[in-house]
């Protein structure tokens, strides 16, 4: 798309510069939000029920389902509206930011949203770019500027961008105003790292522009006073906006079982409705029941009676529809939304050094954290600090070590042999030249920086996109290298020599190397390459290849990261050809990446190997403990790394992933299918054999498996099953030499295996993104390699060790909370609606409701909603310390244990049982319909329903109380408050203006009956004590480890409490003091616990 | 001067909505600490009571429940047993029954079919006696029936009086006149008349039956009201309406006393409170104890005179007359007492079981180690 420069551009052709991250506007909020909400099955179901109630004559008024539905929809809408309002606010802040634009010969201050394509924008130092700009000029003569893209991708290094050479001189507003030019650019594209093709045509001069002239919105100007640029992509077409992409929805296992429960209840509902309809017609067959003289039908009913079978069925459906818990979804949503705050608030997940707290990007998966079976972790930056320290190098087949800032050859006396001097120098040159490191120094003062004053003394900071490079250059600056070289603009400055940087062949993960082409002071054109040994060694034709390979392996065994360095000299002819090809590829319009890769491959060959470097990456703290804990919790840990086999194994050993005692099976360096299969079979049988032995012997032999990328792809191609079999028998698996997509593939393989385990992927770099997105739960480490992983993750933490708290404490809590929440919701609705169903047997299936419609409406949204919500936010069935120190407890909830078939059946049966007790208890109380009042007067059907309902509200609330282990004042408040509210609400039915209601004074009459009080107490106790007995029996006869831990913890606290009372015969006291009285300590348990742990040891 | 780039260039992690976030925070300046507050709430350390249901904790509760429930149960049971109750089925389905002749009466048979049933009370009824009529197989809880009323009309609303609610169909209008009171419930009002005589040496002494105080006070005084208008002449106030089809006379002629006539007739109000179950009783009359020397109803012979108007045979219904005394907890109802005794005993029994479990397993559990 062409367009003229400012002055005569056509504004309507392009989007304006407004950023819209919000989903709704004031106008479309209601319809759009409603539409989205009703796409949910449950909401849609209730909408249908509501419509049915509106259309046909149903037993309950439309309000009974309309009001809860309205409530649910409103709460969700408020939540979404609030989130959208936040987005609007953020948008407005961005869109309203002041910017300076060149217009009509001067600088005009305007708002960011008013920028149009073609406007020339001035950006000052430390400001962010409001649009994607083509850099026209900066305050520097060469038209360059520095930016940091921290807010885009988190890379903190300074990047140099250059102005269009022809316009670089236009440094004043007046000059720029006269500029007439045409820019031709591609359609907007999202990829931040793909180079955007921009062309500039000016006065018949055709000028291709690379990404170095394009300044992206969101990046920040550094070290440069001001720049001018012309807006090319605005608003939603900027790269940043295009990267807003909404993440794919991940659904948790709990949600899936929730949906299957819904289906089961839907079936129960249909069954009840159909049964009722059939029975109704069976009764109706007889005239005396269908239409006794006292209860005649209307003419209309009589005429339609033959065709209303469907309508009867629908009426029963409406009557029983509350068995599907309407507020389940909204409660779950609130619970997840509010509950996820606790992760961010957790001090234990806060990392002081980097000032990072845990970050929750999606609250949908909280409970999934408690279900993890496989952890896939990246190595660099996840297990390690990603803080590189140069340790050793190998130059021309001789090993050197860094000792006190000096490079000393190994095995030689202090004075190095002079024979190696030349290679040494070349090697160091290569290390110093071949990088993209930026230094940070205030250089806005102009061309002369501090380094010119021979100043290696000034401590400089380096900004590098790769920590390896940084380590190498830092090592160089420590004086190992005689030369101090830095990259300055387009020239590499050396103290005594100036190398001109001609080309940079950037690093990419597929090539696994990067190169620079420089011109030495003597005019020689040199190529320096460094990269993974697998990508350099095959391309080298001379140098000490074999020795270097041995050294590289030795470095790797020490756990060092290795890089090989090589160079190549160009003849002038060669260089010309290279220059031409490079230019062609870089300016290519189509398939530029592929063509560039071809050219790079063409250039980087026939290398002369110089040597290799070994860089140490320190392990993060407590990695070993964390991995051990994960293993204890029954989680299998897989390390997926791009590192060399040897490096990976040594790091695995040092971080406790592999044990010394482990039997390590290797599946590496297989070139062909058949050998790979053979090896697999071999290791497979071996491991299976061993695992059989394992069962016999008490002594556990663990297996570790090492696979590399190529072997893995071979193994996966043909022998997936066999490979999986082997993997499952291994307690630790290490995959090395993995490409990013392979990581994701491994995750997907495990995810889709027959057991469908829950997977978690954790990583810090862009290469982990695919894996993070693939896994059920993706965790980003806020590391040094940008924020790509964090942005694409579901949760982000600062350190690997935080994983244990995140899983064992938060995951466990959230799982327990939501599992109980879901079960309880179904339970309470079974309790709610089953008496209604039973009542039909006593009213000729006439669809008479047992409860008044007010109760039907408010049961779920008022009387029973809060205790379970509060429970699901605050419940801690075991003390967090216990959970974290005993990872075994994690196994108690694995495989969705609390939402399996058995617990579901238990809750359902309990619900039905309670419902039967409510109904038949009240029924028998009424007995032959004797009076329950002291004055002999009688109750009616509404009083009966109210009795059942009262018993139900109390029982259901008390059931929640029985489930609660952690009674904060909030729990007390909502639990007792709910019951009190129910009573107050029901008593309000006696208000005079309600006298035409069926319920008028019914509740007061009910409470004025002594029998009713006794019945309520009796039925509640009868319902609950069976549940209590079940709980106690299970706890004593088949205790889970969690329950044991509860008791242990409680008794340890109790001992401490007792200790303060009695100094002697404590064991005697424990048995004689009635236990419940001891349960009543209301104390900040933490302090007691700290104390008690100490005590426990003494006591043993 | 020098700038602290370490702070400045620090990734502004997670400040904005991920992926949204827009442009990063303000330039330069000290980085705000993102350290979470160390409050009990945010750290999930609110002080809390953490009960655990173990045999040890629930044991005493079970014993206490058992010990409380059993005496309560016995008390209730005894109370219920002390209540005198006498019931007569006067449906007349058996050919031997005196009311057999009336079995197939219809609503408008004049004069009404009458029958007399003699009975003997073995024990005297000491305190106030409550006289009920009971119906079986009568579905007052049928949905079509329950909703077939107009509460506004019954509350004396004049517009509803002349224009009753649609819910009253098909008992809303008759011959184009609105029915007052409308609806199936009112239309099917129980209209047998029961009279009780004491037979003492062949002399029949009528027993005074009090017809007030049988309905809820709020029903009588708030929920049900006669239409208002000029004067107190009910006939005039119900002008323009017609009687329910099955009634022999209009609503303003239900009783001779003005404060028990029209919508506030207590027999009517009692009937309008629909029963929960198809077998039900409704309070019919009160028999007050006259003095402390004599029981309300002495043991002896009695006769019940019935004006048999209410047909129940067509739906296999039964009609009963019940005489009952009342305790503080209502009429005779052995269920509650038995249930209390049962639940209490089970609780006590389970308490014993748990005690055994507690002694057998209690120690093991607290000392057992969690496998690592």
Automatic annotation (TrEMBL), chain A:
Swiss-Prot/TrEMBL cofactor(s): Mg(2+)
Main location: membrane
GO BP term (any one): phospholipid translocation
Residues that, per the record, bind ATP: 378-380, 469, 507, 530, 561, 641-643, 737, 743, 767-768
P-type ATPase N-terminal domain residues: 11-65
Coiled coil: none
One Gene Ontology MF term: ATP binding
Name by which UniProt lists this protein: Phospholipid-transporting ATPase
From TrEMBL, chain B:
Membrane topology type: Multi-pass membrane protein
Transmembrane segments: 52-78, 335-357
CC per GO annotation: apical plasma membrane; endoplasmic reticulum; Golgi apparatus; transport vesicle membrane
Pfam hit, one: CDC50
Annotated spans, Disordered: 1-30
Location of the protein in the cell: Apical cell membrane; Cytoplasmic vesicle, Secretory vesicle membrane; Golgi apparatus; Membrane
Extent of Gly residues compositional bias: 11-30
Source organism superkingdom: Eukaryota
Keywords attached to this entry: Cell membrane, Cytoplasmic vesicle, Disulfide bond, Glycoprotein, Golgi apparatus, Lipid transport, Membrane, Transmembrane, Transmembrane helix, Transport
Gene Ontology terms: biological process: phospholipid translocation
Record family assignment: Belongs to the CDC50/LEM3 family.
Protein name, per record: Cell cycle control protein
Organism: Malurus cyaneus samueli
Source lineage: Eukaryota, Metazoa, Chordata, Craniata, Vertebrata
